[in-house]
Sequence to fold (171 residues):
Amino acid sequence: YGVTTVSAEFPVSRGFVTELNIKHIATLQKPEEIIQHALDKPIGSHPFQDVFRGAGEVLIVVPDKSRRSGSEVYLPILRQRLNQLGVSDTDITLLVANGSHPAQPPADLGAIFPAEMIDCIKVVQHDCWNRKELEYIGETRRGTPIFVNKLVADAEHIIVCGAVVHHYFAG
Fold:
């Protein structure tokens, strides 16, 4: 539970308690190699270096700590690639996509970002309740207003990161 465990006892006599184990799926490649390959030969997009060479400012949107995405693996690779293409650390902003969750305490940002990135790259936490940080961009067909973070609305180069997973409540 969180970063700790919770123990519970269940009566086995009713026959509905069983242990579920995750099936290990072997891969021949390390996660870093898979990410490097995806950046070099993306599906349906231009190669990373063609899009971001001399890009100026780059916004990287990452999930908050409630959505594990492997950011500890891919963020250092993205940073290195951007630096090699002439995008300095001062031109990179990391936007934490908190959704409606509260901002993470600074100590918890280590669960998302490698420590060396927190010290040299600007980190901004999205606050969906702060209208000053949002920009109205239109509405849905049903008339629902659409607001996005101003950093996203104003960015010329955006990298959106995350994992494709089910939602705990919505499915």
